[in-house]
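Translate sequence into structure tokens.
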Amino acid sequence: MLSLEDAILLIRYARCIIESSIGKGKICDDRECIAVIPRRKIEELSSIKTPVFVSLEKLVQDGSVIKRVLRGSMGVPRPTLDLLCAVKYAAYYAAFCDPRKGPLRPSELRSCVIELTVLFHSTQVKLEELPERLTPGYHSVVVELSSGDVVVLLPHVQVELAEKLQESGVILDMDTFIRELLKCKLVKVEDVTSVYLYDTQIFYELYPRGQVIERRLYRNRALEILQRRASCEIHSEFGNIKTRYILR
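Result follows.
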């Protein structure tokens, strides 16, 4: 797991990559940006291979409230690159290649905060085990499909779904939640070949170039209600068995 110190370094590194690449149409020469990381840390961080996601959120004034609006988010869903390399590519693609957004403009970066999501300690599970094994808001779910595609269900998606279901009056139980979670990413159960759970850490800047904190999305109110329901004995639609879910 990352320390806050390491997360701060990686977020600074990501910002440098983005700043240095603006207007160039390609990823920058990394020699300048790697200098923001102490030499003693470079080898340590480079020895880690794990999935990484970088998001940019634009701070927008809405009356007396400042809102965080997603500006771009991309990641490396498989543990194929070392941590520094994964952050470099995730940051670049989040800023300039998110198909939902246009390339980031120089004037925008001044009002953007950076969020870093790092996945650790993968555990392969069966799909029918998810109601018992998943801690919403803490675990990321990585689903491999028969097509070869990979779908990643980060804690952010889980929080958004739980709040949406709660607001619409849907009874929050783990079976409903997981079924809807797969549906929101257009995942069909019959297409799933492998499922992995990852412990997840999320860090973000409170303001551009400002203080970095670790987010704990599993403390979200809607997820707490879901977890309380999960402590009851309910019927699992996935496994067709009765399972006692333990409140974590």
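Note: Strands lie at 52-62, 65-76, 112-125, 139-145, 150-153, 192-205, 212-215, 233-235, 242-244.
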